[in-house]
Amino acid sequence: MNRLETDQRTDISVKRENAILIGVELRHPSPNAAESLQELRALSESAGAITVGMMLQRREQLDAKYYIGRGKVEQLAQRIKQEDADVVIFDDDLSPAQLREIEAVCECKVLDRSELILDIFASRARTHEAKLQVELAQLEYTAPRLRGMWTHLERIAGAGGATGAGVVGGIGTRGPGERQIEIDRRIVSRRVAMLKRQIASIDRRKIRQVRSRQEHFNVSLVGYTNAGKSTLMNALTDAGVGTEDRLFATLDTKTTRWNLGGGVYALLSDTVGFIRRLPHHLVASFRATLEEAIHADLLFHVVDASAPNAWEQYQAVTKVLEDLGCAGHSTLVLLNKIDIAEDQAAVQILNHKLPEAMCISARTGNGLPELVEKVRLLVSGTPQRATVQLSNGDGRAIAFIEKYAEVLARRYVDSIVEMDVVIGSALLARLQEKFPSSKVLNCT
Ligand SMILES: Nc1nc2c(ncn2[C@@H]2O[C@H](COP(=O)(O)OP(=O)(O)OP(=O)(O)O)[C@@H](O)[C@H]2O)c(=O)[nH]1
Ligand SMILES: [Mg+2]
Fold this sequence. Notes:
14 strands; binds guanosine-5'-triphosphate
């Protein structure tokens, strides 16, 4: 048995491993390939690897067998020895056959971009829901590419479905791939079917949960990873969510009440960040986590205006939102980190492309009062006079009016209470939606 069959891709952990990163630039020099490689560096460091080398290959076309060509792979093998590298990470997605061929020459573990992202997600998943979602995505993407994972699967399948993702002991011990036994694809497909069933039931629960919040105005934070979504959430509410200067700090959704002043509230949800070329399986499995975004009344699209590739990041997020069916949602773009955006001209160009965007700093609080005021108006609408008729026994509807409207007069006729009020147009619409038995007699 050769070395490759025994120890190379038995797991995809890169924690504390020396990594060489490879990007490919086709034909014309494009800034994207270099930027993307820098992002791969941030990703691999987020996963705990130490970058010992980076190579950007210019090629006319990709090599079907070796991706960067046999000659380059041989050069890479030399470099691996020189740098004492443990892992090579490609900035593109490779086929299982390409991974195998390259590993055979390099004699070290080779990963692709999607596997790396899945690896980070696996190490960060904390809730049961997130763990199931990551495990499903990993199985579907990585399983055909791994050897020696089946024992692990058998163990977790036998343990009644506790997921392997996120187990204490570092990335190396979580996710598929601990010991090696004979490949048994049936175990995987059974596990996949089981995970899908469990996730579907979480999805249903989640949809019910999100629907139950429909009477509120729901705002969801979306944006590129590290854009400052969680920092903004903390600046606007007392949610106290974790923030970190690394990619994919947040994986689970948190929803908090957001006091907009004047008795007006909204619900604000922070959720997982996006990245360009987010693995498709991950988006599919994270649908439930992104349910808040899908059903939000308003999306805050947070953009890191200090990033040199802010526009590309904006476009990458827009693309994921389209995939999630959120393209038509009303969205407010927030150009964040304006306090450290050194290239003012670049910010102006960004603002020109996105004229409705607001400039803010979640860190210094710059622009946040204006943001709160804008949302308060959106939630409550323009104030107007109205006469509303409610059943005298409908305590919740009366409480809603008393909370959100200024009551000018109140008349009781049999079991009906008639109120003259001043109320925001959006709140009046919500009253009618939430309490269909309420009647609005006149409105000016
Ligand atoms: N200077 C500055 N730094 C900011 C600002 N907003 C966020 N940051 C920093 O940017 C980093 C990322 O912030 P997070 O709030 O964790 O970003 P996120 O969008 O939630 O990231 P993920 O959860 O990984 O998707 C942290 O180090 C923050 O302190 C800002 O307005 N100005
Ligand atoms: Mg976050």
